[in-house]
Specification:
The complex is a heterodimer of chains A (about 290) and B (about 290).
Chain A: H1 2-7, H2 9-15, H3 19-49, H4 54-59, H5 71-80, H6 82-113, H7 119-131, H8 138-147, H9 154-164, H10 166-178, H11 182-190, H12 195-206, H13 208-224, H14 227-232, H15 241-251, H16 256-276, H17 278-291
Helix pairs in contact in A: 2-3, 5-16, 6-9, 6-10, 6-13, 7-10, 10-13, 10-17, 13-17, 15-16
Chain B: H1 5-36, E1 39-40, E2 48-49, H2 53-60, H3 62-94, H4 100-108, H5 115-126, H6 132-139, H7 156-165, H8 169-179, H9 184-192, H10 197-208, H11 210-226, H12 229-234, H13 246-255, H14 259-291
Antiparallel strand pairs in B: 1-2
Helix pairs in contact in B: 1-14, 2-14, 3-7, 3-8, 3-11, 3-13, 4-8, 8-11, 11-14, 13-14
The chains are: A mainly alpha (about 290), B mainly alpha (about 290).
């Protein structure tokens, strides 16, 4: 009995036959449904619109397409160089994630398993780094990347992305490494396992989950990044998918349905990733936030 | 464990790449921004020291003042509307209504889609000719209210503000992770004392979720100050600079090669961020002492 009572306080109360409980129930569900519709409806509308003809779209924004126009998707792929840009995005996000997680996990190992002077200062700086509005650093980023000859290259974006994710990834991975027990490590130490052996054989394999969370979060950030990609590239060859969507507007000046198809295509990987890695994405976004 | 020689060498090796990236892309850029904000510099001719002139000049610029104002409006709406809505939905979903996990997934959804794709989606919703919003108004027989939402002086800023205010998933998930950790004994005791679900939320859940709520308010404020993509893509600051933000102002200064003024804007943005974060900390510290 107590279990039912305590686990669902609101439901328990709404079962009471008071009018107040009934109103609460209705308000609660109205809110739940409102937010769900608000989130999903525009998206579904976009997907349906992307399968109509332009005439149908202008005629009645709500009608279902008479014939599902999958050719819009062919147009989108043909016109905009979408596949090329997706390839760029995948390459940039993958390499930036790899570099970022390698650096961050080595840092997190030192920060979580050893005590040394300056450790607290690094924590403070990293917390500040998570909260600083990075957009304010556009000029120095532009200058740095240009001066080292990486303007308008994929390498420039990879370097910048791996760097700006360092504080967040380090915090996420350190959270997991810090929770591992000392005993295993000490046993390994007595068995003659050195600094590197303990990292590669013990700590790293045990913090797989933290690494996955950090990597997922970092990949998503890179995939969705727009501001710096816009600032640091100028030619079609190195553009990422996010810039692609922005320039669709110019390319499809009147062909709205193909533009919608292109937007849908660009969002698909995010949706797929979310479905596959929901746990990592949610915990990455929230744990990072709470640490900051 | 005492640090051995190998530990010291290993730590130096392991920390160097991450710390170099952090120095190069967080620490030095902040100093760079501070230094260049005191220069008159267009990137080509040699820079001239002008002291605080850049600050005075942008402060006299009505567009900059409006941008600061917009950022503050943005932050207030985020902290005072979006976060409370997130708290409300967190409380509702925490009572585990039917299908709450599915709703949590749905609400979190906009968080994984890129800002660019969302902006494009909403530019389609607000479009004056074939947009979803005008379509709904026509369907409801209120076609007279239909307008060019983003091009209108009165509606442009509200239209930008409203669409993401209902995307509460991120903050909601952060708060929910805190709420789920509250032991059920408190609720049980409150029920025995005859407290309703609203009283339980007010006197138990909210005070105990204080930390995550503070995190959310901080994040909401900081993210509002960073606001760029949405404005850049949907209105580009228009109509008549009504929707400009500090980062957009900074971006336009860069495009006009006014690096000194751009960096002065950056410094003010960072300072505003620090003030806001410290202010929120203090506010919550006051609140928490009231509970203890």
């Amino acid at each position: 009995m107590s279990k039912i009572m305590t686990r669902r306080p609101a439901v328990y109360l709404s079962r009471g036959d008071s009018v107040k409980g009934a109103i609460g129930f209705v308000v609660k569900w109205l809110l739940i449904i409102f937010f769900a519709v608000y989130t999903l409806f525009p998206l579904i509308w976009l997907i349906i619109s992307s399968l109509k003809t332009n005439t149908e779209l202008f005629g009645d924004p709500f009608s279902l397409p008479r014939v599902w126009q999958f050719s819009n998707y062919q147009n989108a792929l043909a016109v905009s160089g979408l596949l090329k840009m997706m390839g760029n995005s995948i390459l940039i996000a993958l390499l930036a994630t790899l570099a970022n997680v390698v650096c961050a996990s080595m840092l997190a190992y030192c920060l979580s398993r050893f005590r040394f002077k300056g450790r607290e200062i690094i924590f403070t700086l990293f917390s500040a780094g998570i909260l600083v509005p990075l957009n304010a650093l556009m000029v120095p980023y532009f200058m740095t990347i240009t001066n080292i000859g990486l303007y308008n290259t994929r390498a420039g974006l990879i370097l910048l992305y791996s760097a700006i994710g360092i504080p967040m990834s380090t915090f996420i991975i350190r959270g997991l490494m810090g929770s591992l027990s000392r005993e295993i490590e000490e046993a390994a130490y007595i068995d003659g396992c050195g600094f590197f052996g303990r990292f590669f054989r013990i700590i790293l394999p045990l913090s797989r989950n933290g690494l996955m969370t950090a990597a997922t979060f970092q990949f998503l950030t890179c995939w969705n990044e727009f501001v710096f990609a816009n600032l640091l590239t100028s030619s079609q060859d190195v553009r990422t998918i996010q810039l692609g969507i922005r320039y669709f507007t110019n390319q499809f000046s009147t062909d709205f349905v193909s533009m919608y198809a292109a937007i849908v295509i660009s969002v698909l990987p995010s949706i797929l990733g979310y479905v596959l890695f929901q746990k990592q994405i949610v915990s990455g976004l929230t744990s990072g936030a709470v640490k900051g | 464990m005492k640090l051995s020689r190998q530990d010291r060498v290993g730590m130096a090796l392991f920390m160097t790449p991450g710390m170099l990236l952090f120095l190069g892309f967080f620490v030095l850029p902040v100093f760079y921004v501070l230094a260049v904000s005191a220069l008159e510099w267009n990137g080509m001719t040699s820079p001239v020291f002008v002291g605080l002139n850049n600050y005075l000049r942008i402060w006299r610029d009505v567009v900059f003042r409006r941008s600061v104002g917009n950022n503050i409006i943005w932050a207030l709406v985020a902290c005072c509307v979006q976060v409370p809505l997130a708290i409300l939905m967190a409380l509702i979903l925490n009572s585990k209504p039917r299908g709450w996990q599915a709703f949590r997934t749905i609400y979190f959804f906009p968080q994984v889609i890129s800002g660019v794709a969302l902006a494009m989606l909403w530019s389609a919703v607000y479009n004056s000719e074939y947009g979803l919003l005008n379509g709904i108004l026509h369907a409801l027989g209120r076609g007279d209210l239909a307008r060019n939402w983003l091009g209108n002086l009165q509606t442009a800023l509200p239209a930008l503000l409203i669409y993401w205010v209902f995307y509460v998933g991120y903050y909601m998930v952060i708060i929910m992770s805190d709420l789920s950790g509250i032991t059920q004994d408190y609720y049980e005791a409150a029920q025995i004392d005859g407290a309703g679900s609203i009283q339980q939320a007010w006197y138990i859940s909210l005070p105990l979720a204080r930390n995550s709520i503070m995190t959310c308010v901080t994040l909401a404020a900081v993210l509002s100050l960073r606001q760029f993509e949405q404005v850049f893509l949907l209105t580009n600051g228009g109509p008549a600079n009504r929707t400009s933000t500090m980062v957009l102002y900074l971006y336009k200064q860069i495009q006009n090669m006014r690096y000194g003024q751009a960096n002065a804007a950056s410094v003010m943005l960072i300072c505003l961020g620090v003030v806001v974060i410290l202010g929120i900390r203090r506010l919550f510290a006051m609140r928490s002492s009231a509970y203890e």
